[in-house]
Design a protein that fits this description.
There is one protein chain. The chain is mainly alpha-helical. Among the domains are: about 5-140, no CATH class; about 155-310. The chain has 36 helices and 5 strands. A 5-stranded antiparallel sheet has the order 3-2-1-4-5, with helices on both faces.
């Protein structure tokens, strides 16, 4: 994948998780907003995994998050999340596929707890494992705080800032340089000047800043105006500065920069700036300056209108309430559900009557026909009506057509030698794919038709039965259940026939039915599906066979542990750990021993260790002890993370956390 695009998606993930954490702290538990933000973050995580990566690994650095040695720009907006992880002594945050909204919610709730409290319980990693969070892992580090003697540098810096705050000329130069850089840094610099000035020097600082502001270029003035428009300490500071600046100067500053380019942004600035008592004077000055700056009288009127709109405290009434014409038209055009259903019933009824009349007419013509070709054409026309009859739910008339055609097929005293074969063709047309697909849809919509439908299924053509099952698959669980009622054991034969042609998102329920059947043909079909080149198909098949629980399921899951896709293998490990099979533990332990844990197989190895942690088998403790006892002269790759994870697993099991 393109490296810049991958980093961009990682930035999106970091910002989304940070926003979810902030909303949980700002809003009460009863609010739906935190949950919505968590779901947005999960969607961003899932979007990243569509790139083919098996894990999101975020290193916690001094300046934010890093991935692959490259700093993420999304860390700028995620400082709260970085600080929380740093307080918990986390060196790396790892997220694997399958992360749910509940797991992310648990993670954000856990990191909000006191670090000291969590350390007494074994650390953040143990707390996450105990809460059932399998897809989010943390690697801990031991941080040592180095006490340094306070130097005189800080004192010298404070003295420099005090001198700067009281010298308008030097402050003007600093203002020009700072406002041209990062707005956050500029704001922090202003707050430092407030800090060193203290209450006694605050008025002198405001006076110096007002002089510096008036001497700035339009870009420099815009930088301070932007800070003043948002709530915070900078707004209060700027409001004090404006007390020492004349209304004419303020109006010229607002109109002469970016905010004066159009009336919308100008009205926003004049509404949001902390002008206090000089608001009216500044607005009047701006209106007076507009003609001299190339703006028309229409723009001046629009500015006045927008200022009035932005100052309204009540919402503007809806158009349908302001102009009753719209509501009157809507009421005149409204039609009740009862009328609509009555009209629909009339149309359906007339169509059914017309179709039944057509059948009677064709049967009469069939009895009167003496020409063989015309006789066959009439029979084909009769057969072509069957799909429409079934779609209309007129199973009785459709059954009559099948009976008439079947009777003529079996006539012993036929005047034409080829009549039987031509009637067979007409029956195949009547019981073709369209008829059978309509049949399954009709029964799903109205289960009371099931008995009549079973009588019609007997007439399904060679390609009609596969069409019925294909349509049932598209209708998901209910469709397959109804198809089983209509076809009985034959549905398995048809599923084996059509399974290779199904799309990936249709495979899970089909795989579950085949795995429950537990026969050789179904097993061969499942093996074929597991050899599909796309991992989405293999994951769906794996989910289906895991839901079936049986000998075939266990064999396929065991094979999936060695799948070429790490994500498929990870899903197999999860399913196996939750299967309840007595052989699950030996299979996972065996696979763990085959992996290169510190390098290529890190993601799968981590998942298997997490899966083993919850299994009560005593052999798990021996395997964890084996991995924990590994020694490496040079600790390469993910050695430290694996060892840390094993220690967390052992601590969790020591507290009785394994499933009983």
């Amino acid at each position: 994948m393109d490296q810049p695009l991958e980093m961009k998606r990682l930035d999106t993930v970091v910002r989304a998780i940070s926003a979810a954490g902030k909303s949980m702290r700002l809003y009460p538990p009863s609010s739906a907003l935190p949950r919505q933000n968590v779901e947005t973050a999960v969607a961003a995580i899932e979007d990243y995994f569509t790139t083919g990566n098996a894990v999101i690994a975020l290193a916690v650095t001094r300046s934010g998050f890093a991935s692959g040695g490259e700093q993420l720009t999304g860390s700028v907006g995620a400082s709260d999340l970085v600080d929380q992880l740093r307080d918990h002594a986390v060196a790396e945050l790892a997220i694997t596929p399958g992360c749910s909204a509940d797991e992310l919610l648990t993670f954000l709730t856990t990191i909000d707890r006191s670090p000291d409290e969590l350390r007494l319980e074994g650390g953040l990693g143990v707390a996450l494992t105990g809460a059932g969070v399998d897809t989010i892992r943390v690697s801990d580090v031991q941080l040592t705080v180095v006490d340094t003697a306070a130097s005189s540098v800080e004192e010298d810096l404070d003295e420099f800032l005090r001198a700067l705050a009281s010298d308008p000329e030097r402050l003007t130069s600093w203002f020009a340089v700072a406002s041209a850089g990062d707005p956050k840094t500029f704001e922090e610099g202003l707050m430092e000047l407030v800090r060193v000035s203290g209450p006694s020097g605050y008025d002198e600082l405001l006076h110096s800043l007002s002089s510096a502001f008036c001497a700035q270029s339009p870009d420099g003035k815009d930088a301070l105006l932007r800070l003043a428009m948002d709530a915070g300490p900078s707004r209060d500071l700027t409001g004090g500065v404006f007390c020492y600046v004349g209304s004419t100067e303020i109006a010229g500053s607002v109109l002469g920069g970016d905010f004066g380019r159009n009336m919308l942004s100008l009205s926003s600035a004049l509404t949001r700036l902390p002008l206090d008592q000089v608001t009216a004077q500044v607005r009047a000055e701006v209106q007076a300056m507009l003609p001299n700056t190339g703006h028309t009288s229409s723009e001046a009127d629009f500015l006045g209108h927008m200022l009035e709109v932005r100052e309204r405290t009540l919402p503007e009434p809806a158009l349908v309430d302001a102009d009753r014409t719209y509501r009157a038209v809507a009421e005149a055009a409204s039609i009740t559900d009862e009328v609509i259903e009555k009209a629909r019933g009339a149309v359906t009824g007339s169509a059914t009557i017309l179709s039944a009349a057509s059948v009677r007419t064709l049967l009469t013509l069939l009895d009167q026909q003496s020409d063989f070709d015309l006789y066959c054409d009439t029979a084909n026309s009769l057969a072509a009506l069957v799909p429409k009859l079934i779609e209309q739910g007129d199973f009785a008339t459709a059954s009559r057509v099948f009976t008439e055609l079947s009777h003529r097929e079996s006539m012993a005293d036929s005047p034409w030698p080829d009549l039987s074969s031509r009637m067979s063709e007409a029956l195949a047309l009547a019981g073709g794919p369209r008829s059978m697909a309509a049949l399954i849809k009709a029964v799903v919509a109205n289960p009371e038709l099931a008995a009549s439908a079973r009588a019609l299924v007997r007439y399904a053509s060679e390609d009609g039965a596969p069409a019925l099952v294909t349509e049932a698959v598209s209708l998901k669980g209910e469709g397959l259940r109804v198809a089983g009622q209509l076809l009985g054991r034959r549905i398995i034969d048809q599923l084996n026939r059509i399974a290779p042609q199904l799309q990936w998102f249709q495979l899970a329920p089909v795989a579950e039915l085949l795995a429950k059947e537990n026969d050789g043909h179904s097993a061969l079909t499942l093996d074929t599906l597991m050899r599909r080149p796309d991992e989405q198909s293999r994951r769906e098949v794996l989910a289906g066979v895991a839901a079936a629980r049986g000998p075939i399921s266990l064999r396929i899951i065991e094979g999936a542990l060695r799948d070429a896709s790490p994500e498929v293998a990870i899903h197999a490990a999860r399913f196996l750990s939750k299967s309840g099979e007595p052989t699950a533990t030996p299979l996972l332990i065996k696979r763990l021993g085959e992996l290169d844990l510190d390098n290529n197989d890190f993601a799968l190895g981590r998942e298997i260790i997490s899966a083993l942690t919850r299994l009560p088998d005593p052999d798990v403790d021996k395997e964890l002890a084996r991995v924990a006892g590994r020694r490496a002269l040079i600790k390469r790759g993910h050695y430290g993370e694996i060892q840390d994870l094993v220690r967390q697993a052992q601590a969790f099991r020591a507290k009785g956390g394994a499933d009983q």
